[in-house]
Amino acid sequence: MINKVALAITIMAVVTYLTRVLPLILFKEKIKSNFIKSFLHYIPYTVLAAMTFPQILFSTPSIYSGVAGLVVALVLAFFEMGLVTVATGAVIAVLLVQYFI
Amino acid sequence: MNDEYKRGLRRGLPIGLGYITVSIAFGIMAVSGGISVWNTIMISMTNLTSAGQFAGAGLIISGAPLYEIAITTLVINIRYLLMSFSVLQKLKMPIPVWKRLIFGFGITDETFTLAVLEKDELTFEFMMGLITLPYIGWALGTVVGALLTNMLPLSVQKCLAIALYAMFIALIIPATKRSKEVTFVVAVAVVSSIILKFLPISSGFSIIICAVFAAALGAKMFPKEVEE
Fold this sequence. Notes:
The complex is a heterodimer.
Chain A: H1 4-25, H2 34-52, H3 63-78, H4 83-100
Helix pairs in contact in A: 3-4
Chain B: H1 3-32, H2 37-47, H3 50-61, H4 66-77, H5 79-90, H6 97-103, H7 109-117, H8 124-150, H9 154-158, H10 162-178, H11 180-196, H12 203-221
Helix pairs in contact in B: 1-2, 1-3, 1-8, 2-8, 3-4, 4-12, 5-7, 6-8, 10-11, 11-12
């Protein structure tokens, strides 16, 4: 049986690698289109945003802890606390709410 | 040891240290979501990218079909095309294609930034030095995070899944504070993603549609000269 996870990892690795090396071996001219440049600038943020909402609310054992984690993450991120602090804060909020309900 | 390689190592050291904490978080996130320790480590060692592999791991956990994983990985990593292209402009040519195929693997948001900020032209040895410690840090942190998670009780592991989304928020919010345009595209992506949630579309596809729509709308309305 083909291991689907191993296949998924291989696909991710190949696609990621290609985005990195294709320009190094193919491109000859500069990208001039402002539209494409701007699009490439925005796309990481829009992908992350679309992945996070509304899924974050349903990522925990109950929606109450999901909301608590979301709020804590938003506040910590607003004060630019860094990836690990924001993630830890959200997890602690979820653990606390789960403990009390 | 080659001087250029050593110079690259020194430049890459802070990136490598920074990667350790983020990849610990990745290891915890992936294993608590149900991916095996070995597969989690393999993801980090073959992908070496934060947003892309966080997204990919999220899709693996949710059982998304392979083509959705492929398209999402492509969409989220498409910025590397631009970055590699900028690096290409700065290379001290000639560098044979096979050497470019090797150091190209290590181009990330952070190594790219340091590479293009260099005053001198980039040699193959410098690029190899630059990516060495980030790679080691990324792999090492993942191992630590993955093994740590397996020691936690299941009830606690279930509460860790939110770590992934919290990190996404930590990547998005600071950028929205600095740019009204980014705020706009993020808002469009969030609203359209919530709307599509009510339609019978798979989540992987919904992400791609919303992300491409929001970024294209933003690029159309605010086609600003973005710094590279």
